[in-house]
Amino acid sequence: MSAPTSIALRGSYRIADEMLFDGVALTMPAGEWSCLLGRSGVGKSTILRLILGLETAGQFEGTIAAGDGKPIGGRASYMAQSDLLLPWLSLRENVVLGVRLRGERPDFDKADAMIAQVGLTDDHAKKPGALSGGMRQRAALARTLMEDCPIVLLDEPFSALDAGTRADMQDLAARVLAGRTVLLVTHDPAEACRLGHHVNVLSATGIAHWPVPESAPIRGVDDPELLHTQASLLSHLRGAA
Amino acid sequence: MTRGWYPLGAGLLGLGLWQAVVWITGAPHFILPDPWRVAKVGFENRALIAEHTLITATEVALGLLIGSLLGALTAIQLAASPRLARLTLPMLVFTQAVPVFALAPILTVWLGYGMASKIAMAVLIIYFPVTSAFHDGLTRVPPALLDLAETMGASPSQIMRRIRIPHALPSLASGLKLAAVYAPIGAVIGEWVGSSKGLGYLMLLANGRAKVDLMFASLIALAVLTVVLHKAVSLLAQRLTEFSRFA
């Protein structure tokens, strides 16, 4: 993996003539987790798509740049709420999908190491249909790790999991993605406060930085300061239109 | 009764109804022969029927193979180039508005009385269903999957090969199942319009000589051919579907 870099996004976004957000300034410091929260439809996923260089419905005016001045494309990997595993491929073949799609020869030793990191070694030959939801999301995480990108963009990757599995996945993701520049789009204030070095709340008028507990992530689920922070963040989100 | 017996039961029921109609109406055998007579005539003419069945089966199989290949390749091409698809799809739909039956005479003029014109008929009749079904599948890949592939730096041809085609195999399977039923229709129409071989020819010949029993026997041979073909293609289709869903 190349050295992590910071990313800064500044600008406004409109769909047709309607402004979705304006005056947004989001900075993702290098090698740390930045979380992005906000009401549904406020444009969280749009920001993630813009950074990834994916097609969006409207127009963005502004700048998106990496701190080291190099392009972001090719250095960012993506993980979505749905695991997006191909049902006809084994877990191991799914993990090397990116390599295959670039027409390169897969390094299966490396793939097996990634599969071991997410604890699925015994299941590497199984098809996704034979895995539970949590295992599938771990497989998707192994596929993300295989890409070995310094920038990782996560779009609510844990939101479909049950509470226990979600907490396990958060621990796992925090461990294996440490040292990368991560943007986590999430609906869950508890998740943001557990994982984020930085928590940002997006609204139509811009981004507010929410103070996080002083302890370093990943924070214990029973950390009193965490519980206090997530409660006040939730109140804020309920108040924000 | 286990499931395997149902088709046999259905067949016996059909034969019983047929026999009942013959008894009730008292139709003479040159109008409506009874099942037993058809079976007897069919057995006596087994070599003749087998010879013509083989011809029709060859036409249908080649038509199915060529038509499916052409249809699948067209679908991939159209899916790879949406602009081409926007231009070509209306044209394809328009050609479907021309009844294939109406093209049979001209195909016979162009390709002669041999197998080629019948194969062409079968190809024409199945080309559109295969193209349309497969194209639908190729263009209905979940967008998030394509986004993921894009962030991985995939080329369009790799996305086609590794994601879109495998994902669309169940759709191709539906198209092929339709094609298996349509292809014999195309071949037989071709034979009616002009030929000296095949089940369609034999049926016309028998009909013209008031050998309705032989015509029925040929018709049954054609039906059996279609059912066997449909069954074979269904098995293949099931394999294709299972591949991309669970396998």
Automatic annotation (TrEMBL), chain A:
One of its GO terms (molecular function) is ATP binding. Pfam families: ABC_tran. This is Putative hydroxymethylpyrimidine transport system ATP-binding protein. Residues 2-229 form the ABC transporter domain. It comes from Hoeflea halophila. InterPro entries: AAA+_ATPase (IPR003593), ABC_transporter-like_ATP-bd (IPR003439), ABC_transporter-like_CS (IPR017871), ABC_transporter_ATP-bind (IPR050166), P-loop_NTPase (IPR027417). The keyword Transport applies. Gene3D superfamilies: P-loop containing nucleotide triphosphate hydrolases (3.40.50.300). Belongs to the ABC transporter superfamily. Keywords: ATP-binding, Nucleotide-binding, Transport.
Automatic annotation (TrEMBL), chain B:
GO terms for biological process: transmembrane transport. Its main location: membrane. GO terms for cellular component: plasma membrane. Residues 49-237 form the ABC transmembrane type-1 domain. Keywords: Cell membrane, Membrane, Transmembrane, Transmembrane helix, Transport. It is found in: Cell membrane. InterPro entries: MetI-like (IPR000515), MetI-like_sf (IPR035906). It is a multi-pass membrane protein. The chain crosses the membrane at residues 12-32, 60-80, 92-113, 168-194, 214-237. It comes from the Bacteria. PANTHER family: ABC TRANSPORTER PERMEASE PROTEIN HI_0355-RELATED, ALKANE SULFONATE ABC TRANSPORTER-RELATED, MEMBRANE SUBUNIT. Belongs to the binding-protein-dependent transport system permease family. This is Putative hydroxymethylpyrimidine transport system permease protein. It comes from Hoeflea halophila.
